[in-house]
Design brief:
By secondary structure, the chain is mainly beta. Helices cover 0% and strands 40% of the residues. The chain has a two-stranded antiparallel ribbon. It is elongated, with a radius of gyration of 14 Å.
Length: 42
């Protein structure tokens, strides 16, 4: 099994239904049945 997931963090928008530029974006490759991910914020 090989698949990708997209992780994104967006800032607050002045309009409630629009996204602003991504503050963080990463595409992760899932190649194992049981992958574990840890995300840390600064």
């Amino acid at each position: 099994m090989v698949d990708y997931i997209d992780i994104g963090v967006f800032g607050e928008s002045k309009k409630s239904n629009f996204l602003v530029k991504a503050l963080f974006y990463k595409r992760l490759n899932i190649d194992k049945k049981d992958d574990t991910f840890v995300f840390r914020t600064q």
